[in-house]
Amino acid sequence: MPRPTLCAALLAAVLATTLAGCSGPVPVPTVATATATPTAVSPTGDGLLRIGTLFPLSGDHAASGAAQVAGSEVAAREIAARGGVLGQPVQLIHRNSVRDEAAAFASLTDRAVDAVLWDAQTAARPELAASVAPAALLSLSDLVNGGTPLAVGEDFATRLKLADPGLSDTAGAAEAYDGVIATALAAIVTGDDGAASLETGWVRVRQGPAVCTSWGECVLALQEGLQIEYQGLTGSQS
Fold first, then answer.
1. What domain range includes position 213?
2. In percent, how much of the chain has pLDDT > 90?
3. Would the CA dihedral through 157, 163, 168, 169 be positive or negative?
4. For the segment 140-192, what is each residue's pLDDT rounded down to a tens digit?
5. Are the beta carbons of 227 and 211 closer than 8 angstroms?
6. Has residue 162 been placed in a domain?
7. Rounded to whole angstroms, how far apart are CA atoms 106 and 126?
8. 236 assigned to some structural domain
9. What are the beta bridge partners of residue 55?
10. Which one, of 151, 150, 145, 170, lies nearest residue 160 by Cα?
11. What is the DSSP string of 25-87?
12. Given strand 115-118, what is the order of strands in its sheet?
C-alpha cells in the first residue's frame, strides 16, 4: 500500500501540471534597445594647430589678401596671449592663391597644416577640398553676411594696423579673424587638432545655446561646460 506522503506528492505534481497547462504563456519582458550614439572621430592631430591660408597676395585683390593675413594674425596673437590651443600657439602659414595654386597646395601639405582658410572674396571651387586634403577646408566666403565682406569698425581697424602698418584695405579681415577663432575653438571642443575633428568642431561651435562673441568669452564658457555658438565679428552663421 503506497505511503500517504508519496500519494500527496504525486497529486500535487499532477495538479501543478494541469494548472500550468490551463494558464497562458508567461510573457517575456521586452528589452529596450539602446539608441546608437554617433561614433566619435578618432584623434589624428599632434597637439599643434597649424592653419594654412590661401589668400590673393598679388594681382588685383592683393590689398584684400593683405587684410586677410592681418586679420588672421590678430586672431592668432589674441589666442596666444590667452594660453593658445591645447597649450600651444596657433601656427599660421600664408600662401598666395594667385597664379600657381598647385605649388601653394603642395607647400601647405608639406607643412602638415590641419586646416586651410580660403579667400573671403572668392567662392571655393568644389575641387578645392580634395586639393588641400588631408587638411580640412574652410571657405571664408561662407562667413560673409550680406554678400560682401564686413566693413570693420574703428577698434578692429586699429588692431589690424598694429599687425600690418601698411594696410590699405580691410576687406576680408573680419572673416579671416573669425575663421581662425572658429578653427581654434573647434580644436578645443574636440580636444584634437586633426582635420576630421576640426570639421566636426566647426559645426559644434556654431550651434550651441550659449552665445559668445570673443575668444576669451568662448573659452570661459567651454570651461564651464557650456555648448557655445560663436558669433564673432561677422555675426551668427547658424
1. 50-230
2. 72
3. negative
4. 999 987 678 888 999 999 999 999 999 999 999 999 999 999 999 999 999 99
5. no
6. yes
7. 18
8. no
9. 96
10. 170
11. PPPPPPPPPPPPPPPPPPP---S--EEEEEE--SSTTHHHHHHHHHHHHHHHHHHHHTT-BTT
12. 91-96, 50-55, 115-118, 136-139
Note whether residue 63 is domain-resident. yes
Tell me what pLDDT residue 43 has.
Answer: 85
Torsion of CA 86, 133, 37, 181, to 10 degrees: 40
Domain count, the chain: 1
Q: What span, in angstroms and rounded, lies between the C-alpha atoms of 36 and 173?
A: 42
pLDDT at position 164 is 97
pLDDT at 96 over 70: yes
Q: Which of 176, 237, 179 lies closest to 208, judged by CA?
A: 237
User: For position 93, which CATH number holds?
Assistant: 3.40.50.2300
228, 232, 236, 238: CA torsion to nearest 10: -50
**Is 97 domain-assigned?**
yes
What's the pLDDT score for residue 99? 84
Q: Which residues contact 159 (CB under 8 A, 6 or more apart)?
A: 74
Tell me whether residue 109 is exposed, middle or buried, using C-beta atoms within 10 angstroms of its C-beta: 0 to 12, 13 to 18, 19 or more.
middle
The b/e string for 201-233 (b: 16+ C-beta within 10 A; e otherwise) is bbebbbebeeebeebeebbebbeeeeebbbbbb
Instruction: Give residue 163's identity as a one-letter amino acid code.
Output: A
Distances (CA, A) of 96 to 32, 40, 118: 56, 35, 10
- The whole-number pLDDT of residue 44 equals 85
Task: Give the single-character DSSP code of 143.
Answer: G
Distance spanning both ends of the chain, measured CA to CA: 91
